[in-house]
Design a protein that fits this description.
Length: about 190
């Protein structure tokens, strides 16, 4: 059965063999407030929990009974995408911001696409040829591109050799900004 914050506080006070009066002196929290905390008649606030955490030498997570955090690693399962590309999701869910590693082998620039969202990508290896609106550019390893996906865009390998990118894609308005060097102020 799960214990409440009050039950944990009462158990810690008993374990440390403290009276409400002595705990009050140590923390600066009134005896009545401590009593109400231990009986769950007062909501535990950060202002009250911090001195108790220090006094008992326990983490706030232990004090409030926070659940353990699971394994943060993301299981990456490659997916075959259009035009022979491979996408490896780097985020767990299809939420408002998604991260992907993509391997691009096709060298043909396909019909530009337009859709909602904002994209940022970093070239890990190889060379990427990108068409954005009327412009066509080649990005090399270490270079970054960011753009509004409502602009017609497409990209491919610049030389037919595999190229790898990390791509972050977000809903419109969630822009990610990268600057390799401060702007030149002439």
């Amino acid at each position: 059965m799960a214990t409440t914050v009050g039950q944990r506080l009462a158990a810690l006070r008993a374990e440390h063999d403290l009276t409400l009066a002595s705990l009050s002196e140590m923390t600066g929290i009134s005896k009545s407030t401590l009593s109400r905390l231990e009986t769950d008649q007062r909501k535990p606030t950060l202002e009250l929990l911090l001195p108790l955490s220090r006094t008992y030498q326990v983490s706030l997570d232990d004090l409030v009974g926070a659940p353990e955090v699971g394994d943060p690693r993301v299981t990456m399962k490659p997916r075959q995408l259009d035009h022979g590309r491979v996408g490896i999701p780097l985020t767990r869910s299809l939420g408002p911001l998604q991260a992907w590693k993509m391997i691009i082998t096709d060298s043909e620039l396909h019909e530009p696409r337009v859709h909602e969202g904002y994209e940022w990508f970093y070239v890990l290896s190889g060379r990427i040829r990108m068409r954005l609106g009327d412009k066509e550019i080649v990005l090399r390893a270490g270079e970054v591109a960011e753009f509004d996906c409502r602009q017609p865009h497409s990209f491919s390998s610049a030389d037919g050799k595999p190229a790898e990118i990390i791509s972050l894609f977000g809903k419109q308005g969630e822009r990610i900004h990268t600057r390799a060097a401060p702007p030149n102020r002439s």
